[in-house]
Amino acid sequence: MNESDASPDDEEQLRFENELKKLKLIAESGAQIGGITQRQLPPEVESQWLDTIMAFDKAAQEKKMTTVRKVVGDVELPKPENLSDKNLPLVINATLDLFEKRGISLTVLHEEDVSDRELYQFIVDEFLDTEMNDITIAGMVSCFNYEDFHPNHKEDIKWAAREFLEMLSSKSFQMMNSTLASKIECEGNVLSCPNFIEKLKAFTLDKELIIHSIAPELPKIGDDLATLKIRLDYALSVSDSDMHSFVEDIDMELVTEHGFWSISRVLWPGFDLN
Fold first, then answer.
1. What is the largest CA-CA distance in the chain?
2. pTM to 2 decimal places
3. DSSP H or E run through 37
4. What's 81's DSSP letter?
5. Helices (H) and strands (E) in the chain — how many of each?
6. DSSP secondary structure of 145-211
7. Three-state secondary structure call for residue 77
8. What are the phi and psi torsion angles at 142 (to 5°)?
9. What tens digit of pLDDT does each residue of 171-214 get?
10. Which of 126, 174, 209, 228 is least enclosed, having the fewest CB within 10 Å?
């Protein structure tokens, strides 16, 4: 039945059934259902959406696992050593197309840092045997990133620094802790993450910071400590005064906490939090 063919009574019955599905999801899995209200979403579309959620929730509760290899049909890929550099991209594209047809997406976020041969070797040696949830729902895609298996420390470090500076400029303090270590050294003082953020709030209260460009150099990376120098082009005003432009070098140190690179030291000329 098309939405346009449905009578008012049919629509109300479907809306009633949708409400029962929502109550079932809330009662059985503690789901929080919000966003689009029931009158904004056609009842037939909402019903299909709820059915998909219920199917996913049921499969997730069963905790059935499988592997990429099984999902794509126990395919036997050519051995990397048997492929020439010329043919390798063609095989990779065909393999990724096969994955997508089976509802699996594999993405390389930083393609410039991963050669075709490295990617294909990873697919053959690791990815095919990766465990995944055994959930079969029409239209659902299971997404994987190469960097989830082989982190790109260089880009992760630059990302953390860039995110911190952009959050500072926009005064988005509520998520800033995602870029910071539990302890941060600034101007010779060691502060807890919440205290450091509070000092940043006070520092920027009467200021407007506009960042024109963030140019990080290649970080120096050790086992659990990294250093990064950034050339920052920005403008700053205080209490509605004229904007003053600066180009300065900022030094940062980052440590690994909970598997992520987090800023643990900031050295910024003129950046006075006292």
1. 72
2. 0.74
3. none
4. G
5. 8, 11
6. EHHHHS--HHHHHHHHHHHHHHHHHHT-GGGGGGGEEEEEEETTEEEEHHHHHHHHHHHHTTEEEEE
7. coil
8. -90, 120
9. 999 999 999 999 999 878 899 999 999 999 998 888 899 999 99
10. 174
